[in-house]
Amino acid sequence: MGAEDSGPAEAPASAVEGLRGVLRGELLQPDDPGYAAATRLWNGSIQRRPALVARCAGEADVAAAVGFARDHRLPLSVRGGGHGVAGYALCDGGLVVDLSGMTTVEVDPDARFVRAQGGCTLGDVDRATQRHGLAVPLGVVSQTGVAGLTLSGGMGWLRRAHGLSCDALMSATVVTADGEVREADAERHPDLFWAIRGGGGNFGVVTSFTYRLYPVGPEVYFCNVYYPARHARDVLRRVESLVSAPGERTAPLAVFGRVPPDEALPAHIHGEPFVAVLALFPGGPEEGERALRPLREIAEPLFDLSGVTTYLDVQSLLDEEYPDGNRYYWKSVSLPGLTDELIDRLAEHAARAPSPVSTVDLWFQGGAMARAPQEGTAFTGRGDAYLVGIEGNWSDEADSERNIGWVRETFAALRAFSSGGIYLNFPGFLEEGEQLVQESFGPQYERLTAVKATYDPGNLFRLNANITPRQG
């Protein structure tokens, strides 16, 4: 499952020592202490062996590492949180720009913005902003890196209330392929700013993100109710009714899976197919309890874990379901509508998953993320009412073929209902290559190729959902 690299994968020892002397951070090689830890990713399916890992301490280190990889024609990958499903945080035989030590978060609660370095996780940002009762619309697992999440859009519990992560981005510091450190926003390098909001890691290394903040928490109401899967049609229709109400800002997630053998749950429901409804109310907890009560009264639930909690607890609620080192293969399908036949298909495919912890997830979209102008950012898919995430999650390498096969089979079956797009944070291993990327970006793709040609004409940043620079 290695990346396809080109060009020589070696640099002279004297040049390597020169780079080591320039960096404020560490430069690791395969025999160095700390190399093994630095090349271990969240997705245990990914095993790659870079020649060099530059553990950067700031923009100057990043610029030096980028210049070194460019000058020596080394494959280059960028590691933020190391949580990307496709595993492009590492490369074989090349250089890794590792931002994991760059985790400073600076909050201005009065002006309502936060600056986060490129190695930050969601948890780093949430802990800093929640001290002031503020939040960025980020994802749903606290260990996810903000960089990869934001660059490919960023969907979370606040997507209908406040939009995507990339919609909250006010500015960014980007080290481009020429080694320059550029500030990008609506006025400075606006083409670059447009492209990094949804266009992925194609255009440079983003070393810091400045986000707009919104009042959320500290206490919130969270709906977390599990029904027998046979009620799936009734459950999803009730959720549809809720989100279609004028002004409704709640962003539910419906999850199809099987009840795990958890000692806290009755033994007789272990393995039972379920459809769960998870939803954060983006206002006061008392109002949230009233607003989300209809989602808890659709049928007799298998169990109901809903209640008043903290925003921080909601943001880390799913962490234990995605432990470091397990194996993950996720794909996605955008959907314009939700028919009874499609609902039945979702339940059927989830029930056939080889792993008991794999799920099929239905993201209800719309609201603020749909109101943002389609061409205002590189992110596509705003007009689609739903996104399906197909999550293959397993632990034993021997089970990889069956689990990957199940995801691919489900993906192929759901494409018949699809509008054609995908979410590039759930891309499988990007094995379809440029065809899938072009399909995902649709009419935005040509504009992205032009921006790519401006800032990365040699395609140095190619280990990602790659966009080929426009020629001529």
- Low-pLDDT parts are 1-8
Based on Cα principal axes, name the global outline: globular
Helix content: 25-40%
Distance between the termini: 33 Å
Derived structural class? alpha+beta
> What is the mean predicted local confidence, pLDDT?
94
The total count of strands amounts to: 19
What fraction of the residues are assigned to beta strands by DSSP?
15-25%
Instruction: Work out the helix count.
Output: 15
Radius of gyration: 22 Å
Could you give a short account of the major beta sheet?
8 strands, antiparallel
Give the arrangement of secondary structure elements.
Blueprint: H1 13-22, E1 26-28, H2 35-38, E2 52-55, H3 59-71, E3 76-79, E4 95-98, E5 105-108, E6 113-117, H4 122-130, E7 134-135, H5 146-151, H6 159-162, E8 169-175, E9 181-184, H7 190-196, E10 205-212, E11 214-215, E12 219-228, H8 232-243, E13 253-258, E14 273-281, H9 285-292, E15 303-304, E16 307-310, H10 311-316, E17 327-335, H11 340-351, E18 359-364, H12 368-371, E19 386-394, H13 400-414, H14 434-441, H15 445-455
Parallel strand pairs: 2-4, 3-4
Antiparallel strand pairs: 1-2, 5-6, 6-10, 7-11, 8-9, 8-10, 12-14, 12-15, 12-16, 13-14, 13-18, 17-19, 18-19
